[in-house]
Specification:
The structure is a homotetramer. By secondary structure, chain A is of the alpha+beta class. The first copy, chain A, has one domain: 7,8-dihydroneopterin aldolase (MptD) (Pantoate--beta-alanine Ligase, Chain: A,domain 2), CATH 3.30.1300.20. Chain A has four helices and six strands; from the N terminus they run H-H-E-H-E-H-E-E-E-E. Chain A starts with 13 loop residues before the first helix and ends with a strand. Chains in contact: A-B, A-C, A-D, B-C, B-D, C-D. Chains A and D meet through helix 2, strand 5 and strand 6 of A and helix 2, strand 5 and strand 6 of D.
Chain lengths: 133, 133, 133, 133
């Protein structure tokens, strides 16, 4: 699995060494998609209640905006689902059903808007490309 | 693995049905320990920087204080380690080396103070009982 | 939050330095509880299907048996729930509803059996002490 | 954040409703990137030793190959790093430093090879596009 170009040359030049085969637009899509997959799998399972949801939304946003090429992350946790699914202990675990996420990624002048939304007909938190330059 | 008593009786009486074999003090230790294990494995890997650390500390605290019998959670993320270990992209992944956590759990009148701290000599983020009534 | 005893003395003597306030029985409960909290929050969210469940069960077992004082871990993922909750893409995310876990922890001659099981009446994956010496 | 097209029409037609703005090649890149981000953040923190590494590699592979458009996932956990970084308890937490991952994603006839590898010069587990049709 070792690609030769990883071992030589100016590794600081990340774009040239690791992304020479894709366009700016594809890079924006790539980085936004990584961050969406990362966001879901990092935070699913976190204890959450109606009261704690806004702090969790903010910390997910701040964490994921650190990743390369990410311009903006917005997370909405559905308060009605939180209320409807809470346990006897008055909280639940964060899950795909209750998350609505938008990520804007940008590379050079190309921008992608990636979203995740639970689609009832698929029974699945679908990640998709909502818009791209 | 099915214990018979799970299927019959008054399941609402959690304490009687599931914790009859342990003391109040042991229950406090049990609940604090669960929350410490949960905290570490939920949040390790989260992207974090010096700037985002305080929001992450707050959201970990609020999430883990939701769990049963948890009175207080305090998380300190070491800013010096964050600075020393950051990548070229100016952030790193949350790890055991940089976390100092205290959890206070209480059941009836018994209280336990559980801590996690990286112990260099063990090369390990040790979870331990710092105090208990 | 810095306890003085962390900084001096023989840190290799973990039991003496960090667990002097609890009994052997309490230590067994403590270590089993940490591992149960850890297990849940590490693996919840993992993509899983009827076909992949047995490998996932085995890797959860092997990972969590590495933790201190853990004698045995057994994980059952409910195949019927997997089948009933799968998405259009033929898999789902591992969740508390579908897990039945038993952990045996031991310290000196004291043994604890910790379990996690989803309790419908609580709408909650309850972690509890099933048995202890 | 609600896009109108999510609420009407034939939601079963995922490709038409959610991916109409990107090419087949971009879709392959998108799906591979999601899975790489997901893989890292799901499994980082898992207890692992030289002995348990191969089962963990296999379960990561089987879990992530379930995701849409994923043809193949290969994970190598570096045994030397495991040995060098293990704690007094003879294991460590899975981290980006020790993982070498390749993901092949395919949509229609377009294929992307996504990789993750720790790049010392960046002090970062870089995810990149190694090849694409």
């Amino acid at each position: 699995m070792e690609a030769e170009h990883l071992k030589t040359g100016d590794l600081m030049d990340v774009d040239k060494n690791f992304f020479s085969k894709i366009s700016d637009r594809e890079r924006a899509i790539f980085e936004g998609a990584i961050t969406m997959g990362a966001l879901f799998h990092q935070f699913v399972g976190t204890p959450v209640s109606v009261e704690s949801a806004s702090v969790l939304e903010k910390s997910i946003k701040e964490a994921m905006e650190l990743q390369p090429c990410i311009e903006e992350v917005n997370v909405e946790i559905d308060k009605k689902i939180l209320e409807d699914t809470k346990s006897e202990f008055e909280y639940t675990s964060l899950s795909g059903e209750m998350m609505n996420v938008m990520i804007v990624s940008k590379y050079n002048h190309k921008k992608a808007v990636i979203r995740m939304k639970f689609i009832d007909e698929l029974n699945y938190p679908l990640m998709f490309v909502d818009d791209v330059d």
